[in-house]
Amino acid sequence: MIFRWLRHVxxxxxxxxxxxxxxxxxxxxxxxxxxPHRPPTCPLSTVTVFHKFPLSTRLSITTSQAxxxxxxxxxxxxxxxxxxxYLKRLVTEGxxxxxxxxxxxxxxxxxxxxxxxxxxxxxxxxxxxxVETTQKELVEVxxxxxxxxxxxxxxxxxxxxxxxxxxxxxxxxxDEILTLLVPADEADENDIILEVVAGVGGQEAMLFTxxxxxxxxxxxxxxxxxxxxxxxxxxxxxxxRHATASIKGLNAYKLLKLEAGVHxxxxxxxxxxxxxxxxxxxxxxxxxxPKEIDNTWDKSEFKIETKKASGAGGQHVNKTESAxxxxxxxxGIAVECQQERxxxxxxxxxxxxxxxxxxxMKLDQQRSQQxxxxxxxxxxxxxxxxxxxxxxxxxxxxxxxxxxxxxxxQDFLLGGDRLDEMIHTVQQHLHREEVLLxxxxxxxxxxxx
Amino acid sequence: MRHFLQRVLQSRTICWNRILxxxxxxxxxxxxxxxxxxxxxxxxxxxxxxxxxSESLASSLHSPESMNSALRTYCTNITRHxxxxxxxxxxxxxxxxxxxxxxxxxxxxxxxxxxVPEPGASAEYITxxxxxxxxxxxxxxxxxSVTAEERTKVWDLCEKRMNRVPIQYILGEWDFRDLNLVMRxxxxxxxxxxxxxVEHLWLYLQEDLTRxxxxxxxxxxxxxxxxxxxSLLHEFPQAHCTAVDVTKEAVELTQHNxxxxxxxxxxxxxxxxxxxxxxxxxxxxxxxxxxxxxWTQDMxxxxxxxxxxxxxxxxxxxxxxxxxxxxxxxxxxxxLKPGGSIWLEVDPRHPDMIQTYLNxxxxxxxxxxxxxxxxxxxxxxxxxxxxx
Lengths: 449, 388
Description:
The complex is a heterodimer of chains A (449) and B (388). With 449 residues, chain A is α+β, with helices and mostly antiparallel strands. Chain A contains 11 helices and 11 strands. The two termini of chain A are 59 Å apart. In chain A, 53% of the residues lie in helices and 16% in strands. In chain A, a hairpin with a 5-residue loop joins strand 2 and strand 3. Chain A is flat and about 90 Å long. Chain B is elongated and about 70 Å long. The chains are: A alpha+beta (449), B alpha/beta (388).
């Protein structure tokens, strides 16, 4: 009996995770000993634990599906009412920010905050105004079209052309607004370190890793990025266990960050004698390299301690003690300087010292954050966490995030146009999802207030 | 560092055994400073006597430089016990091979008992100066003994300080911003606030000046040692300065300093009484001054160093301290180029008075464009702009 139940467990484990067979195991029971409509009753109490596991997994699968379909139904579009009202809110916020900026009489930090917000909103406000004018034009063209009589074919053609042009404009504007709405990643401008690691699948995974690394090298060349291979750990068969490269160039992080994750390959490996299709994985991690961190510490964060004259100061006293001590209040770091006779100079020296120290701290912090990001991207390299599948038998690449298929795999692996297209599609898709999320949060907040 | 500490500890052990009874000795607090991933066990016996400054230890955790100062405080404290035990009496042979730290602590104590202000800083500056350093913290803590020659020099200079001569006159030189200037009695010694005045003016001009080759004519009224003019000339290569002072000593000292710094070709020094009839060949972009601004009622409260050695006409500004300030405002509007400004260091009570004065004398076409605070957060610097 127990053996039977263990076999049942085995059935699930055998199937590649998230494959239709895997899911079938939950929905119909799966396996030889299960009947389609009656879930197996469990004779042992310990096995009930097992029952809970697939149930919860199934739940999470369905909810995630529900979420993603919901997201797909509510797409981002200018015709969509929710989108439009969200944009309107942004525009009104922009106007209020502008007004308060012009009214003056503000503290320094508040002023800076407002200016920053205005910089963020400015482009959106502009674009929305453009959309409004285009919409007006469109309405007028429509009116013209409906007013035309049958005979005026020339006029109709012209009007139709114009309408098409406006519609094109609208599409472009929609794309532009979309990219504007996505909050910029702080590291977008940074140089990156690309890391590829072979995952599950032994020699075959290493061979695939080598293919992928080559693809990224070619993509870097295609994009005119400067790429430098840092480490390469090759296997005996010409595969790649692990490799890192530093890539410098415009938008390198912005584009390649979408490549981070588990890539799955399905093909008949060179090592395979019986001609069976294997599934292996490799992982890509993309880490932004810390760039020159600008010294963005506010003056109010520092407490400057000097030997203060107790009396009237100025000409009334003659003080020679010039030691200066600066404390960075949030971190409690303190720096003292007394090497100069001039207090002003001591202050300047202490300031640069403390800023260098804070910079070092920020750098360390960034490094540990990077470590964390790397771990997240690498995941467990299980076959189920894939972001993309390369199916050689069907000559197809599927990106699981955007749900896009592309054919002609060999061409894709050259790392040229087709990879670029794929990355842009995924980017567009992720942007849409992100904007929808932002809009949802915003509308929730609106409801609350 | 550690070796030094050990050496200090060894050489002082005998004294300690004599001074501190065995009980307090064993109770000595042992603190470990983690510094650059090394552990320096610092035994702070001084903590028992409450004389060790705990904040210097706290700061030493953050910076290696202040570790030096913590160590130095520690060493000074040891020598202080030493002195106390001998009731301040020094035998002939101790005087002969005296260490730097001992000399400093000896004079600090002497200044303290004589009521000389800033006893520690005075002793440190004098010792540092004799050894050829600008400030005491630059001396390596490993440098231990002084030669007999240096010792006599330190003793001479410190005796002067006992007579309340300002440190700057004793050393004969002092720093102002990036420059080192000769100081000579009775010429007024520039104060740290004046450095800030130049800093504000520097920022103001920096914003104003776009081209490198733009002419910049500056007039300084009451130049003293020439500090303001010379640092402006040093920081603005296109600037030309006219510096005037009423006393002969000040004019000579300014000229001397300018020659030393190689800035005399762009500086024109004049000895004259700056009053309402003052006139110059050119007009100026900036008039800057640290005029005498001490009120007559306050003249009696000044420190002995100031009253006894500095020129009174560089300090005393009349019954309300506004004597020369009024003259500068009155004459200044006539001497300024359009868009020019007047920069003054004044008493904290003066900005309001200047505002009222300008309101009552609209014919000068000047307005108070800004009042800036000094590092003690007192309104100290005034910027007056010519109305367009």
